[in-house]
Design a protein that fits this description.
- The complex is a heterotetramer.
- In chain B, about 70% of the residues lie in helices and about 5% in strands.
- Chain B is mostly helical.
- Chain B has a single domain (about 1-275), classed as ABC transporter involved in vitamin B12 uptake, BtuC, CATH 1.10.3470.
- The model of chain B has no long low-confidence stretch (mean pLDDT about 90).
- Chain C has one domain (about 1-225).
- The interface of C and D includes residues 16, 17, 21 and 225 of C.
Chain lengths: ~250, ~290, ~300, ~400
Amino acid sequence: MSAVLEVSGVSKRFGAFRALTDVTFDVREGETLGLIGPNGAGKTTLFNIITGFLRPDAGGLHYGGEAIDHLSPERRVSRGMVRTFQKSMVFPELTVRENIAMAARQRAGVGLRWGGAQRRLGAAEARVHQLIGDSGLRRSGGERMSDLSYGEQRIVDLLISLALEPRLLLLDEPTAGLAQEEAERLLQIVRHHDARTSVVLIAHDIDIVFGACDRIAVLNLGQVLCCGTPEVVRADASVRAAYLGALADS
Amino acid sequence: MGYAIVQVLNALSFSALLLLTALGLSVVLSLMNFINLAHGSFYLLGSYIAVFWFASGAPWWLAFPVAFLATALAGALLERFPFRGFYARTHLMQVLLTYGLSVVFADLMRWGFGAQILSPELPEPLQGVVFLLDMPFPVYRLFLIGVGFFLAGILWVLLDRTLWGAVVRASVADRGMVETLGIDTRRVLSAVLVLSAGLGGVSGALGAGMLAAYPGLDEEVLILALVTVVVGGLGTFRGTVLSALVVGFALTFSKVWFPEFANVVAFSAMAVLLLLRPAGLVAPRLRQV
Amino acid sequence: MVAVAGLSAAALLAGEFHLRFLAEILIIGTAVMSLDLLVGFGGLVSLGHAALFGAAAYAAAVAAQHLGGNLLFILGTGIAMGAAVAALMGAVIVRTSSLFLLILTLLLGQIVWEIVFHWRDVTGGADGLRGLPPLSFGPWVLSSARPLFLLAGLLALAALWLAHSFVDAPLGRALIGSREQPIRMSALGYSIPRIRFLTMLVAGAIAGAAGALYPFVNLYIGPQSVHWTLSATMIIMLVIGGVGSLWGAFLGSAVYLAIQTYISAYTDRWQLFVGLIFVLTVLLLPNGLAGGLRRLASRMRRRRAQQA
Amino acid sequence: MRDDAQPRLAATRRRLLVGAGVSTLLPLARPVLSQGARPLRIGMVTSLSGPFTALGESMRAGMQLLLSQSGNSMAGRSVEFLVEDDAARPEDGVRKARKLIGQDRVDVICGVISSGVALALRDVVTEAKVPTFLLGSANDLARKAASPYIVRPTKTNWMLGHTAARWAYDKVSKARVLTVGSDYAAGREYVGDFVQTFQQLGGRLGRQLWTPLGSADFGPLLTTIASERPDMVFGFFAGSDAVRFLRQWKEYRLAGRIPLVGPGAFFDQEDVLPAVGDAALGAVNAFNQSPTAPASANFNRAYMAAGKPLPGEFSTNGYVCGQTIKAVLERVEGDLSDWEKARAALFAEPVDTAFGRIPFDPRNGQAILDIHVNEVRRSADGKMINTVVHTYESVRDPGPDA
């Protein structure tokens, strides 16, 4: 199984604060990699670097075997690298359908069209319908986003990302603030989407991560403590000391 | 040599004036994230007060505290309604509300003070001149330089170096947290706005000797202040001071070297500056996501 | 439909002065509507919109002086000039937002103003250009009020249609997205600078078309039409009319110009009226008169439905 | 030309807007009476907002003074006076003029301060064939833009720039004269006309400085002037620029050291001098208006009796404009229907005004004026007053010959 993404030796400082130090790991094709660690461990910073929103001070990224450090966030997206954000980032004034269509049109290469390309636009619309139908959302799609519940918004948030047909999907705490049932439905949508999609999942809920992920990387104070299958991570003494233990104590 | 020194002093005095006009605007923007385009009106009101005070024969230096208090009072009234309801609104709505108010105030002041250009008779001690290597430089401008940077210093200490300043900043950053400490954040925010309005008035009183007072000055001053604050980078006090110097020197030396094209040169310089540093000279670090 | 009916009714009934006044409202309204694309849909508050409008107006006036007033040629010149200045401005502002954008557009617009003001040989400087040849279309000379009014009406309708099609197209949707969630838009692979740049071009072209006709209402063009104060006035008109509604722009320019034209004959305090109406709109009708009318209409419809 | 299909639509809108109180102004509300009894409607376009507000208010006050002195009637016809604000914007001015013509159906248009507005109005009033008494001072108004429907009872910029150069060359300095001007149309004309005449007389100039309209700070410029050490400065600024320049001129101790000469608007008695203290003391200006000119004495008294300050150019302009309109009407017994005849009657004989006895140039309708050389002096009660020290009689703009 080849690696979709290789992160090698990435470091990032903000002033005197070392957000990331020499972070190295890879994401394999089709796998779901969990990324856990306490608050401030650098998980979101790492996402920002992978997706090009931030530049690393040192180290590099390879995506599909190719160095991508010079690519803008938009170019990385066009190569199938898609992320979500910690808080829900939907378009509140638009309808559900329009929210998802925003991504579907971009995927179809007609995101900035003004006239023409009717066939591709139609295909994008169809894709939106299909995504809404498959999601199990009991919504027609004509509702304004701001009228939806938080859980539904997070699901639409995910559907927006899926409409881009990602090769690598980076999910930043998609289940935060959701009830157990909603969180599971959301993960189910991810898993059923496409077996070839690799997923990196940040989540606070240990059960979810250990249940849903093929491998897990543990980040603490900007460093990778351990990376491996759930069993390996569970057995790792340093993880236990730094993270799991602390959780267990609290 | 004397020529160069005096031109530098000219630039410094204009920078001081810019700094004075921009301080109040910068304070509300940096501490409360509130854009007050009615700031020019506070300035002009302060200028009118100074003109009438100097003419009244009362002790001249009292004009400045009086201008401060009068405009602070106006600020306090406006704070209750309608500013307070707009602190949490978008910048666009704040811009629209306060710009609309400035249009109203402009016409009210024209109504009250007339359309004539009024100019204060400067008090005796400020009328002098010093000669630097045979080149004249007015004492009043030295006074402006001194007061401008002195006021900036006081504000810096007050807001950056005292507990009160910390409370203000904390009230903006995390309102709930400060309120659990038993501090009424609404009053803190009111106090900042009142301070800012007072600063507008006192700068108007100080600047009246240079810019005079007439309908339309409010808008001219507002633009100068806004450019200064924005070039400095929104929401940083250091940036405003730096930017007042940069803009002041740019405007002054473009007048020295290219008097005919002074505005084009200065505007272009500022536009290029904003292009190179899209978040201003001193950009606050903000986490985006 | 209503708009077309209103325009034709006015063309039949109104007199010389009123037709010309309505033509001015429609032309300015078209420019304000193009500003609505930036402000209402893109969240880009520009204080340099008069520079696009005015530069196009000057280009059209100068072209007419030298090459005659052929309508299509003049319109083409204005559109090209509006789009060209918009391209320059767009290239500069695409990466800024909020107050930075406001000030940057102000500075750029004032640079255009300074050029117009100082290039006396071509622009007439502070006095402006006077005695322009009237517009012509084939054998028809469009100098009297009625054809000018009809022309302005056609321009307004065409621009309104164009703006609607823009807003409904993927590009317009992307513009709204870039206003609502710029970060998410980049994460979806949209280039926000590109969206903004294209929008500037469209807004510039529409403002340019309006600017092209403007000098021919009075056969005069002056530097005030480039000045930032006109940009600020346009924003006032837009807010009174209703940000984000497109057609509200015409309402806003009509209200503003009517106040300025009619109230000022009776009181020097007309600016106070404008200011108060503006502030009241911001306080009470955040979506302007257009939003207010729409709400009123839907309430009446509901009441009628209840009665039925 | 006037459109007789007066719109009902507009009349109702107006009624809605302004209520019944002003319905007397409605054009349709009155029956058409015989020419003699129908009131004369005078429309004034002037700046009541924008940068020339103070000047516009003075102009209106001057005109109103004349009207009240005449009992609101001229040559037996009662007068209705309508004022419209042009905000110093040509587009607004044109719209207001069209409103006065098309809706209010005025018989005469007058006023205007900004040259841009005046030039923009030129074609509108000419096309509509409305007699117009235009007060802007751009040279073109007496030259390329002259019109048979326009009468100009005021100066052109050339008349002041030219005269100032003659005085400066004869009495102040023949060389090392520095010019400084506000960089817009009027500044360019005043300084350009001064330079032309001064050089024709054989004078030699030093540097020529220009500064943008609306400058907040003249310090850099004044320091440059101080370092140039010229023998004389010819300058022009208007309004707030003039006030700031003159005050700072004194602060930098140039007042009293370098003679300052300019056109009168730079030292206007009503607009500028009261705001600058003694900063302009000793400065010399060429002006068609002076409160110390004998012709102005009666007007001064009446104007000040109305609670106004010592009059400056624009209040006098407004008054003189009214005097001229009145003179025309009296010469044709109130019947303006034949403008050709009325115009000939005006040109036939000079008119007595607060500017003196002025003949009109039949080529362009331009007044031929006495231009005073004023020195700013301190009066007995401490006021700064433009005091006539010399008068160049009958200065005539070159007009179409220029």
